[in-house]
Amino acid sequence: MNKDGKHLAINGGEPISNDKILIHLPNLEEDDFQSVDKAMRTTFVSGDGPECRKFEEQLATYLGVKHALFVNSATSALELAFRAKGFPAGSEVIIPDFTYTSSALGAAYNNLNLVLADVRPDNGSLDVTKLESYITSKTVAIVAVDYAGIPADMDAIEAIAAKHNLYVVHDTAQSVGSSYKGKKVGGFGDVATFSFHGTKNLTTGEGGAFVTNSDELADMVRIQREKGTDKYSFLTDNVTRGYYQYVDIGMSYVQSNINGALGISQLAKLDQMNARRAQIAEFYKKELSDIQEIDFLHIDDHVEHNWHLFGILVPPSERFWIMDALRAEGIMSNVHYTPLHQNKYYSHLGRDEDFPGAMEFYNRLLRIPIYPSLTDEQAVKVVESVKKVFK
């Protein structure tokens, strides 16, 4: 890299793109607008409506699971995953150090102690070679996270969990549509938790799903997400005379019927949207593979990636300069988020030297734009900008 080159936009040169190419855009089209409009015109706009039920059924079928419960966020789904188990306060839950805060909040909100675990430096997934070292007599659960939509090594994680009789929560917030050894993520572990936030491959604006093959867990969460009432059964079975019971403690985590309608139209084209992401990713890899200073996130052979994010691993000492240089060229880039232990709330749980894999991954990671509506012309400009900055 010639950081002083006058041709670089960061030094006053002409940028590759005069219009900013955003790092993310939701893929919303006419079918989505029509679906939402139709739901609104029914006047059933509150939670757990007919479109929500339809979306849940279709999502469960798509994922190959028994139960998919639509909630207002993946964060809520994670909280419910631990609320439904009722582990004793002070029990320990193993969380990857490199993840979004929601992965840890579900356990924290249920008075459980967090134990941060190191991750692989090549893709941010739990380092299964170190996983057993974090298990103690107080450990009750493992949270596995699919960073960037790349499925964690679930066979190894489930084997370790089975050996120690541990509960597995699979944080699949970023991996809807991804597969592990030929099976869609969602059916691994005891519970999976999806996000349908505006940045995700499938969006309902805000939203998420609690997914499980356990009838018992599903029955409990149907009550707990609806303020501790048996309203779900009341609406489904109509066996009482115009009222429903308050049967447990709970919270209001149900999702609007409008959002359910959007979920239906988005799910119908999810594979198509993910295929476009894969097309862009293959173009990036082909065009950037000859840049020696760049590595790509490692994807195991048995994984089918939904390309939620496209990350490049760059020299740590130059990462922020590279990000600023790309932005000057009109290409939005960021580092996503920091390891949990580097944040104020989690800082007492470890030091940099405790998580060498997480620190190496974080110090090298940059994201560049990828989403279905990214045009071929824009993708070319992304590649040209990266080559310009590096060469």
Q: Mind sketching the topology for me?
A:
Layout (H helix, E strand, L loop, with lengths): L29 H12 L8 H14 L3 E5 L2 H10 L8 E5 L5 H7 L4 E5 L21 E7 L8 H11 L2 E5 L7 E2 L2 E2 L6 E5 L12 E5 L2 H10 L6 H7 L19 H12 L1 H19 L6 E2 L6 E2 L5 E4 L5 H10 L27 H9 E4 L7 H15 L1
Parallel strand pairs: 2-3, 2-4, 4-5, 5-8
Antiparallel strand pairs: 1-9, 6-7, 6-11, 8-9, 10-12, 12-13
Helix pairs in contact: 1-8, 2-8, 3-4, 9-12
Give an account of the 3D structure.
The chain is α/β, with parallel strands linked by helices and 391 residues long. It has 2 domains: 9-25 and 270-390, Aspartate Aminotransferase, domain 1 (Alpha-Beta Complex); 30-268, 3-Layer(aba) Sandwich (Aspartate Aminotransferase, domain 2). 35% of the residues lie in helices and 14% in strands. The protein contains 12 helices and 13 strands. It has a 7-stranded mixed sheet with strand order 1-9-8-5-4-2-3, with helices on both faces. A 3-stranded antiparallel sheet has the order 7-6-11, with no helix packed on it. Helix 2 runs parallel beside helix 8 (257-268) and helix 9 (270-288) packs parallel to helix 12 (376-390). The longest helix has 19 residues, at 270-288. The termini are close together.
